[in-house]
Amino acid sequence: MSKFKFAHVTRRFMPPTLALIAVLLAGTLGYLHIGGDATTVVDALYMTFVTVATIGYSEIIDMSGKPGARIFTMVIAFTGIGVTTYIFSTITAFIVAGELNLALRRRKMLKRIGALSGHYIVCGAGRVGGNVAHELEKTERPYVVIDIDPAQIAAHAARNPIAMHVVGDGTEDELLEQAGVRRAAGVFAVTGDDNRNLVITLSAKQLNPSCRVVARCHEVNYFSKMERVGADAIVSPDFTGGMRIVSSMVRPQVVSFLDEMLRSDDNVRVEQIIVAEGAAASIETVAPSSTEYIVLAVRTAGGATVFNPPADRMVQAGDAIVVMATPAGRVALEGRVG
Predict the structure, then answer these.
(1) Which residues contact 274 (CB under 8 A, 6 or more apart)?
(2) Of 176, 41, 178, the residue nearest 106 (C-alpha)
(3) Residue 202: half-sphere exposure toward Cβ, Cα within 13 Å
(4) Which of 68, 138, 227, 238 lies 20 to 30 Å (CA to CA) from residue 107?
(5) How are beta strands 212-216 and 233-235 bridged, if at all?
């Protein structure tokens, strides 16, 4: 629990707790006085407790012929009942207010998600999903995280207070709908379970055939299954990790360059911009010289790649312009040709 929440709970429950302690203390002292030397502290405290709790056990301190003692007992009972009622009402209000706040926050979250379009959905908030979300955050791409484990979502929300999320099973169509899958640009199926990733891929493609799905997969025999249900790309962390280890050995400078790019404060990345219909023009026209991006290559719709294309190279609808760009540079190019 955060310091703020702990202080809030303390403020709510401190007054009734102190009031109850005061009633128990006053009753104990009073019954010690009424009972005289034969009464122990335990007897007096017990008498106070059964009076406040309205248990109704017989008096263990003789109050016959002592009207003042009985009036004192009535005062302790009346005050104690009032304090205990206050405590239970505070607990009830605290629980109801918490549930109400949770419902309001969830409704506000769904309203924010409902305004999204062209965003990404990350199914799985574990280590892999957390890194995916971090990269989307760094490159200023809107996203929604789905995870069945509330603790994982809470940890993600602690790292990214303004991040949007939905708690639930990403294999369920209803959860994907809440995350805006019909308006999403892509879905990451990156839970730690290949079966779950398979179902997420199938569900996402059925709800939005045009969205791109990238699936995480450990078992080799699942690759063909994920391809059949529509996964656009399948990534094996084991295979990718092995390739990275080899690259660190045989081409360390390239790896260092890529790592430095990922750590850059400018958030520079290698991006692709797809040329839209009717946007055919030369590289010089659609991507004039800028400090925000560098054109690296053009990949045609037919699959051919032209590295370091000349300025007069024409690009057509469906071509991909590969650039090294900041988020601002990517957005500028998307505005021209995307």
Answers:
(1) 318, 319, 320, 337, 338
(2) 178
(3) 12
(4) 138
(5) parallel
Q: How many residues does the chain have?
A: 338
How far does Cα 292 stand from its chain's mean position? 31
**Residue 171: per-residue pLDDT:** 94
For residue 338, how many other CB atoms are within 10 A of its CB? 14
pLDDT interval class at 336 (50, 70, 90): confident
Asked if 277 and 324 touch (Cβ cutoff 8 Å), the reply is no
Can you tell me the distance from the alpha carbon of 148 to that of 12, in angstroms, rounded to the nearest whole number? 32
Where in 88-228 does DSSP place strands (E)? 120-123, 143-147, 164-167, 186-189, 212-216
**Sign of torsion, CA 319 324 326 328?**
negative
DSSP classification of residue 290:
B
Joined together, the tokens standing for residue 22 give 């005061």
CB-based contact 309:295 (threshold 8 Å): yes
In the numeric block, which tokens belong to residue 258? Answer: 């890529």
Residue 169, phi then psi, degrees to nearest 5: -90, 115
Q: Fill in the DSSP letter of residue 58.
A: P
pLDDT digits (tens, 9 = 90+) for 9-62: 677 778 888 888 898 899 889 888 888 888 888 888 888 888 888 776 667 777
